[in-house]
Amino acid sequence: MVFFHAPNRAERVATRRFVVLVPPGHGHCLVRRAKGEGCRTVPLSGHVGFDSLPDQLVNKSVNHGFCFNILCVGETGLGKSTLMDTLFNTKFEGDPASHSQPGVQLKSSTYDLQESNVNLKLTIVSTVGFGDQINKEDSYKPIVEFIDAQFEAYLQEELKIKRVLHNYHDTRIHACLYFIAPTGHSLKSLDLVTMKKLDSKVNIIPIIAKSDAISKSELTKFKIKITSELVSNGVQIYQFPTDDESVAEINGTMNAHLPFAVIGSTEELKIGNKMMKARQYPWGTVQVENEAHCDFVKLREMLIRVNMEDLREQTHTRHYELYRRCKLEEMGFKDTDPDSKPFSLQETYEAKRNEFLGELQKKEEAMRQMFVQRVKEKEAELKEAEKELHEKFDRLKKLHQDEKKKLEDKKKSLDDEVNAFKQRKTAAELLQSQAQQAGGSQTLKRDKERKNSGFL
Ligand SMILES: Nc1nc2c(ncn2[C@@H]2O[C@H](COP(=O)(O)OP(=O)(O)OP(=O)(O)O)[C@@H](O)[C@H]2O)c(=O)[nH]1
Ligand SMILES: [Mg+2]
Fold first, then answer.
1. CA of 79 to the centre of ligand 1 (A)
2. Of 151, 205, 256, 282, which sits with the fewest C-beta atoms within 10 Å of its C-beta?
3. What is the Å distance from ligand 2's center to 159 Cα?
4. 259: closest CA among 197, 176, 201, 315?
5. 3-state SS of 119-137?
């Protein structure tokens, strides 16, 4: 059975102060005023009834219900799901992740829980694939982005004209349980880098997971080593508050036990004549809720039973406030102007609008200049190309003319040669025909002479 502490921390503080002001058995109230404030102390002569204010506050909160969001950051298989099941005494769904995820992801599940008449909307967000990549440089990024996304969603709701914050499902992370592997050596650089990136955004509670894997003496040294590494690297972990005197002592003691060494198990074993959550080994049994065996009870006490409200409050007043401030400053909102006068929303809006319009104009001008410059460059390029083309054309024209002249000269000389040849040919033919004629008359003469000599 899980017990939620109602009233919350603020209400407890309010109630305590009230008790101081109204001595039991007195029908009237001593109304005090703080020094320097301009109000008078007046006695009441009868019961008025505003002493029920804390009760009204508690009733309202109980009727409305509570929400609590836990982020479990830790390597695959370190016992995140088992610890959540053990802490809340139930079985949440959740399949084991594989070790072959290409990157880190976050898985979120929301559950409605009820204990006595208190309703709790619990969201458990777990890392999937954390520590499984060869290059772990960016492993923290999806976690930071997830936390910021929840802050951003809340801020957007706050900035709406019609906002419904009382009904809003607040998904901002209230507690980050950081699971440290039970190596017994020291923190891994992945742990240090991730915690350092998260410490200004979320309440980090470091825990040594599967602490049944470390011996008692090793565990003491391991805790000291982890604490000194966190300090030397400037990692701010969540400190249980000691300003509320009703819990100051227990919280102070518990701060010295951090990081809690936890063991998770949903298995119930009979020990003596009682059923207890435990893990059974060949050599014996380790009891989850036995403070001599591990710090599970301390964690449950601190996280759920004593400081749940402080974790919620710190998330809103410290981490969300920081996110909101940075975001609003980024958007140009300021509380005071350069003369330390309050800045009105209207002025801020107008200043931002003018700044935006100025920037827009500058950008437009720059773009216009760039356009003109580009056109000029293109024009020059085209002119250069045109000039080159003209030169090329002239060159080709000249070349063509030269070629043409050469060809004409060649043709003329060929024509001359042809004519000369023709003349030579005609002369040769004439000579040949003359020779043939001369040869023919001689043959005739010889035939005649032969004939004449034959008759003789
Ligand atoms: N020895 C030991 N084993 C544990 C402890 N807590 C869980 N386991 C075992 O470790 C294994 C993984 O536990 P899970 O709770 O699934 O771990 P997980 O971190 O949720 O794993 P993923 O979601 O897959 O990253 C299971 O076999 C659990 O029984 C523990 O405190 N000590
Ligand atoms: Mg799991």
1. 3
2. 282
3. 36
4. 176
5. EEEEEEEEEECCCCCCCCC
Q: How far is ligand 1, taken at its centre, from the CA of residue 389, in Å? A: 78
What is the C-alpha separation between 304 and 37, in angstroms, rounded?
38
Burial class of residue 148, CB neighbours in 10 A (0-12, 13-18, 19+): middle
Q: Which residues contact 360 (CB under 8 A, 6 or more apart)?
A: none
Instruction: Indicate whether residue 212 lines ligand 1 (CB < 6 A).
Output: yes
Q: What is the DSSP string of 398-413?
A: HHHHHHHHHHHHHHHH
**Cα of 174 from ligand 2 centre, angstroms:** 19
Task: Note the pLDDT tens digit of each residue in 132-171.
Answer: 888 888 899 999 999 999 999 999 999 888 888 888 899 9
Q: Which one of 80, 82, 214 would you pick to mutate in the ligand 1 pocket, going by the greatest count of ligand atoms within 8 A of its CB?
A: 82
Look up residue 389 and give its amino acid.
L
pLDDT in tens, 384-430: 999 999 999 999 999 999 999 999 999 999 999 999 999 999 999 99
What is the pTM (predicted TM-score) of this model?
0.72
For domain 63-331, give the fold: Rossmann fold (3.40.50)
φ, ψ for residue 279 (rounded to 5)? Answer: -120, 130
Q: Which ligand is nearest to the CA of 74?
A: 1
Contacts of 343 (CB under 8 A, 6+ apart): 333, 334, 335, 336, 337
Q: Please state, in angstroms and rounded to a whole number, the distance separating the CA atoms of residues 154 and 147.
A: 11
CA atoms within 13 A on the CB side of 210: 14
pLDDT over threshold 80, residue 454: no
CA 180–ligand 2 middle distance (angstroms): 15
CB of residue 242 inside a 6 A radius of ligand 1: no
* C-alpha–C-alpha distance, residues 204 and 189, integer Å: 17
Q: Is the CB of 294 under 6 A from ligand 1?
A: no
- Distance separating the N- and C-terminal Cα atoms of the chain: 174
Give the model's pLDDT for residue 84. 94
Ligand nearest to the CA of 210: 1
Domain locations in the chain as residue ranges: 63-331, 345-409
